[in-house]
Amino acid sequence: MNFVFLGPPGSGKGTQAARLSEELTIAHLSTGDLLRAAVNEKTELGGQAESFMSRGELVPDELIIGMIEEKLSQGGLDGGFILDGFPRTIPQARSLREMLDRHSTSLDLVILLQVSDATVIKRLTRRAEIEGRTDDTEAVILNRLEVYRQQTKPIEDFYRQESILTEIVGEDTPDRVYEAIRKVAIRTMNA
Ligand code: ADP
Questions:
Q1: pLDDT tens column, 39-83
Q2: How far is the CA of 190 from the centre of ligand 1 (A)?
Q3: Which domains does the chain have, with CATH numbers?
């Protein structure tokens, strides 16, 4: 089973994707985590991505697509995967489809976590205090929300048209949100 988690920053994608990947024992690929690791390890990709991330802008498509392509070609995703934070633009969604086609596979389910802007701002401001992520300052949070609206939201329709999008309200407690996700994931697996 191949899943994508979609939703604005702070919607809980990372937390929920980690939990589902553990329960289903499939790979969890978070582009944000991969990029932060690249920045920490001072790789070439990390150097190229850092300034975009700190401003809350998207890292250029070709860098991200190259990173995902490399992961797919390593073969570790053959047992299924959850993509968290990718795709984030229409060109990324198109590339993903081509890459999966080439590997004779496709997406089974796109889970869209819906949360209000007010919730996002509250959650990310709290996370800034706990984790100290450099892109969790108020100005950068607002920019990431705007970037989501302009560049990522259009892919909701892209997947809606393929009838693989399911919307889940992400305002509830993490456990309740997870139960809702688990239900649709299992229904899709049994279909
Ligand atoms: P959040 O969902 O809270 O914004 P992520 O950890 O998913 O956090 O991403 C952090 C940053 O990494 C993004 O603001 C962006 O700069 C970069 N990034 C992650 N995934 C992508 C992607 N698919 N395309 C472009 N940039 C990305």
A1: 999 999 999 999 999 999 999 999 999 999 999 888 778 889 999
A2: 32
A3: 2-190 (3.40.50.300)
Residue 4 Cα to ligand 1 middle (Å): 14
Q: Is the pTM of this model over 0.90?
A: yes
Alpha-carbon gap, residue 30 to 190, rounded angstroms: 26
Report which ligand 1 atom has the smallest distance to the Cα of 147.
Answer: 14
**Which residue, judged by its Cα, is nearest atom 23 of ligand 1?**
86
Active site annotation includes 88? yes
Nearest CA to ligand 1 atom 10: 32
86 CA: nearest ligand 1 atom: 23
Average confidence score pLDDT of the chain: 94
What percent of the chain is modeled with pLDDT above 70? 100
- Closest to 28 (Cα-Cα) out of 44, 39, 12, 17: 17
Edge-to-edge order in the sheet of strand 109-114: 27-30, 81-84, 2-6, 109-114, 165-169
Rounded to the nearest 10 degrees, how much is the dihedral formed by the CA atoms of 97, 98, 103, 108?
10
